[in-house]
Structure formats: structure tokens, C-alpha cells
Write a structure and sequence with these properties.
Layout (H helix, E strand, L loop, with lengths): L2 H11 L7 H5 L2 H19 L3 H17 L32 H13 L11 H29 L5 H138 L6 H11 L1
Helix pairs in contact: 1-3, 3-4, 5-7, 6-7, 7-8
Length: 312
């Protein structure tokens, strides 16, 4: 007997139980196991045996899950043949994990002011200024002291001028440092710009790699969906053909059974009619013989029966 008729008999014999469409789609042996589990569940429920109820329910679900991806809930009633696990993708849109870092770095680049240099705001210039100012004052004082020793303690105009020149020498040295400090400040400014751009490029590269992985996963998802869709479709087509074959077989069997019943009925009718006709012919023959023997008709039934027996 085919699986179709076995399953049909199981369902017909257990009409008091709820059998979901998912359970009906399983094989005959699996369906029989689930029906047994349902019987055990109901029995445990009547006895108030919660452990037994859980064990029976787990057994039924184990049978369901053993035949593929099961999304039918505890009793199979939630089965959704349209939404398969491989057709559901959570968070399909790409969410970059580096968006905040990229936005912050772009903000630093955009907010960075154009380069300008003010020596008075340069801490390195201040160091040089303090140093050269101190050295200039020392040179000025030494020049005055040496002049006073030569002139007996009286600073001449020329001595003051020489001392001022010594101090101005250091002031000039400080001024000569400004272009160098300007270049150094510009280099620092450019280096910071380069650092921010390199940081942005690194973040962009990491983001590109993450996006590529995302696209690969989307591609894998699409490939899997196509594969499982075709697999499920082939299975559905095979089940449909099997159901069609079984249905036709059941129809043919029922038709043959009906034909045999009709043939048997026709044969029975024919035999009844034949026996009735044979009996009428025998009676007619007996009456004709009685007429010959006795020269008269009608005759009694006993005489007709006797003559029939004699003609057999």
C-alpha cells in the first residue's frame, strides 16, 4: 500500500486529534510517531502529569525537526510554508560600524582653520625669545661694565651704544629664527592635516572591507535562497506528482471495485433471469408432455413437477 493510503488511514482513524498541515506533509512513519506522541500527551494531561506532557510534546517536535527546518510551533499549527528561514534576512540594509569615526574625522578636517603664524603665540618662539632676551641683557650689562672699568666708572656715549649693539645682536638672532619657526609651524600644521587624511583613508578602507563582507553575505544569502527555493520546489513538485499518482491510483482502484460490483450484480441478475427462463421452459415442456399423455390440460402442479423431474 502506498504512503498516501497509509497516511490517509492514519488521519481517518484519528479524526479526534488535531493534525496540522505540516504534520500531514511528513512521511507515514513520522506522522504515526506524532500521532502516538499526541495520544501520550492527552493521556498525561488527563493524569495531570506535566512531565509526561512535556516529554510527549518534545518527542513530537523532535520528529518534526528531524525532517528539516521546522517553524511550526509546539503543535505544528504555526507552520508557514511561505516564510522559510532562508528567505528571511534581518537588517538587510548596510550599517557601517565606522560611520561615527568617519564623521568625526571629516569634522576635524572641515573645522581646521587656514594656516596662519603669530610668533607671540608660538611656545617655541617664546623659549627663544626668553633665551635671546636674557643673553642680550647679559651682553648689554657686560659691555657697560667693561667700559666703566676702562673709564673709571663713567659710561661714555660710545660705551652705551656698544652695549646696545651687543643686545640688538641677540634681538636680531631672535628675529632670524622667525622664518625657521614659521616653517616648523607650517610643517606641524601640514603633518596634522596629513594625519587626519591618512586616518580618514584608513577608516574608509576598513569600511570598504566591511561593506564587501556585507555584499558577500548578501550574495551568499541570495545563492542559498535560490538553492533552497529550487530544492523546496523540486520537493513540492515531487510530492505533487506522488499525490497525483496516488490519487489516480485510488480512483482506479475505486473504479475497478465499482466495476467488479456492477459485474457481479449483472451476473447475478443474468443467472436469476436464466434460471427463471429455464424454469418456465421446463414447465411449458411438462405441460405439453402431459397433454400428450393425458389428452387434456391443465394438469395439477404435482404432475408438472413429476414430469419436469422425469425430463432432467
Amino acid at each position: 500500500m502506498s504512503t498516501y493510503f497509509t497516511k490517509k488511514k492514519l488521519i481517518d482513524d484519528n479524526k479526534d486529534l488535531y493534525v496540522s498541515q505540516y504534520d500531514k506533509s511528513l512521511g507515514a512513519s513520522e506522522l504515526e510517531g506524532i500521532i502516538d506522541a499526541k495520544r501520550s500527551y492527552n493521556k498525561a494531561k488527563e493524569a495531570g502529569d506535566t512531565y509526561g506532557m512535556k516529554a510527549a510534546n518534545d518527542k513530537a517536535n523532535s520528529i518534526r525537526k528531524s525532517k528539516g527546518s521546522y517553524t511550526g510551533g509546539n503543535d505544528g499549527s504555526e507552520y508557514n510554508p511561505i516564510a522559510k528561514p532562508y528567505e528571511i534576512r534581518i537588517n538587510q540594509s548596510y550599517n557601517s560600524p565606522y560611520s561615527a569615526d568617519k564623521k568625526r574625522t571629516l569634522g576635524l578636517i572641515a573645522d581646521k582653520a587656514e594656516f596662519s603664524y603669530n610668533p607671540e603665540k608660538d611656545p617655541i618662539f617664546k623659549i627663544y625669545k626668553d633665551l635671546y632676551t636674557s643673553l642680550g641683557e647679559d651682553a648689554y650689562e657686560r659691555a657697560l661694565a667693561e667700559s666703566a672699568l676702562r673709564t673709571g666708572g663713567v659710561a661714555s656715549t660710545s660705551a652705551v651704544s656698544a652695549a646696545a649693539q651687543a643686545r640688538n645682536k641677540y634681538n636680531s638672532m631672535l628675529s632670524a629664527k622667525i622664518p625657521e619657526l614659521y616653517e616648523a609651524a607650517y610643517d606641524r600644521y601640514s603633518s596634522e592635516y596629513d594625519r587626519l587624511y591618512r586616518q580618514l583613508e584608513l577608516i574608509s578602507d576598513l569600511d570598504d572591507r566591511e561593506y564587501k563582507r556585507y555584499r558577500d553575505s548578501v550574495g551568499d544569502f541570495e545563492d542559498d535562497r535560490e538553492y533552497y527555493y529550487r530544492k523546496d520546489k523540486d520537493l513540492a513538485d515531487a510530492l505533487g506528482k506522488q499525490y497525483e499518482f496516488d490519487s489516480e491510483l485510488e480512483y482506479d482502484l475505486q473504479s475497478d471495485s465499482y466495476k467488479r460490483e456492477r459485474d457481479a450484480a449483472d451476473d447475478s441478475k443474468w443467472y436469476a433471469e436464466f434460471e427463471d427462463k429455464s424454469h418456465r421452459d421446463a414447465v411449458d415442456s411438462a405441460i405439453s408432455l402431459a397433454k400428450i399423455l393425458y389428452g387434456k390440460t391443465p394438469v395439477s402442479g404435482s404432475v408438472v413437477n413429476m414430469l419436469i423431474e422425469m425430463m432432467k
